[in-house]
Amino acid sequence: MEAISAFVGEINGLVWGPPMLVMILGVGLFLSIGLKLMPILKLGAGFRLMWSGRARGDASEGEIPPFQALMTALSATVGTGNIAGVATAVFLGGPGALFWMWLTALVGMATKYSEAVLAVRFREVDERGAHVGGPMYYIRNGLGSKWAWLGILFAVFASVAAFGIGNTVQANSVADVLETNFGLPHWLTGLILMVLVGLVLIGGIRRIGQVASALVPFMAVSYVFVGLVVLAINAHDIPDAFGMVFTHAFSPIAAQGGFAGAAVWAAIRFGVARGIFSNEAGLGSAPIAHAAAQTNNPVKQGMVAMLGTFIDTIIVCSITGLVIITSGAWTSGETGAALTSLAFEQGLPGFGNYLVAIALAIFAFTTIIGWSFYGERCIEFLFGVKAIVPYRVLWILAIPVGATVNLGFIWLVADTLNAMMALPNLIALLLLSPVVFRLTRDYFDKEKTLGVK
């Protein structure tokens, strides 16, 4: 096991090295400039579109309303990365890691927008009559047959990576935090999760969309509210917290308490890596959900999709990071979900840690059902619809296994596979960027002509 961990660790250091971080931020920055910062400038319009009747389904094409598509994507992104991932980033990279998470999200909005635009533009209808799309389809249909191998590569990496980022990591984190706070054995948590996920997956994407649209808004608003209460209690420490975030994004931080100290490179590496793990901008996962939306307009769905990155990182991850820093818990020596639990417990003694445990359990549950859909679409691309049921069975069986194995190794594997599935998608986004820019320009030119703001 140690030899395997060491081998995966070497690959992780390679795929998350400077070239990958430059590529993720670079592609996001390139798309942001090409779109003339539209995702940031039109953020308000995106929220209005999300809540309008237009975002709830205005076309016969597609399986679920655009709002449910966003909630399905958010169900997969708002997970342990928002609780355990942020804490790990701060523990390994210091407070400055939060700044790099923010930067990743701001440029990631353009990335997520572009992914969804291409997903709707190049989606297909499979033999069951379902709309399917994502990087593997926009690579094949947008770039042509000579690039088909790149789409296959993405589907292979994503279908395997799903078992890490979207399944075993989530199950393991839930089992860990429920045992710590409620004394629930790991195996029992795994069994309960397996049954609940199985019941949802029987209904396919429509059931997933319904569950996600019910659970995601509730859990996100509840978690943010409790976080704001803790920040109100720690209000006098907020200015210092922001000071540390911006200072140590560009300068090393010395060891203090249980914190070992961190160089600037650590803040950048873990801030970007955990930011991507959390909001998934650039991974190519979210557009698989947005391709199922009931819409005829790629740009509209892109504007709804970009909200996912903003909500996930700028709002939810920021709450977690600031609570950890203002509480002083980041120097305790704890990491992962235990660090976030400690930070909330200090602000709300007696029940703060239980709130985190419950939030993480719900977050992880929705992530598992969201990522099951991503994995299914990838395996369908590779082997056809006949492979969906066997994949679904494997998915459900992997949950209790994930709940009982070593957390450190799972995080390492998930981190590594994230980078490997991101590479084909980032290449495709660069090559297909002219399509995104043209569709966006045509859409807003038409709105301007019609006098629509």
Low-confidence runs of at least 5 consecutive residues = none
Morphology call = globular
Strand order of the largest sheet: 1-2
The largest β sheet comes out as: 2 strands, antiparallel
Beta-strand residue percentage: under 5%
Structural class: mainly alpha
Rg for CA atoms? 21 Å
Q: Give me the count of strands.
A: 2
- Taken in chain order, the helices and strands follow as HHHHHHHEEHHHHHHHHHHHHH
Distance between the termini: 58 Å
What's the helix count?
20
Report on the structure:
The protein is mainly alpha-helical and 453 residues long. The protein is 77% helix and 1% strand. It has helices at 2-15, 18-34, 38-41, 43-51, 66-77, 80-93, 96-121, 135-143, 148-182, 186-201, 204-233, 238-247, 264-279, 286-290, 298-327, 336-347, 352-383, 388-404, 407-431, 433-450, and strands at 124-125, 131-132. It has a two-stranded antiparallel ribbon with strand order 1-2. A hairpin with a 5-residue loop joins strand 1 (124-125) and strand 2 (131-132). The chain starts with a helix and ends with a helix.
Layout of secondary structure:
Layout: H1 2-15, H2 18-34, H3 38-41, H4 43-51, H5 66-77, H6 80-93, H7 96-121, E1 124-125, E2 131-132, H8 135-143, H9 148-182, H10 186-201, H11 204-233, H12 238-247, H13 264-279, H14 286-290, H15 298-327, H16 336-347, H17 352-383, H18 388-404, H19 407-431, H20 433-450
Antiparallel strand pairs: 1-2
Helix pairs in contact: 1-19, 2-7, 2-19, 4-15, 5-11, 5-15, 5-17, 6-13, 6-15, 6-16, 7-8, 7-12, 7-13, 7-15, 8-9, 8-19, 9-10, 9-17, 9-18, 9-19, 10-17, 10-18, 11-15, 11-17, 15-16, 16-17, 17-18
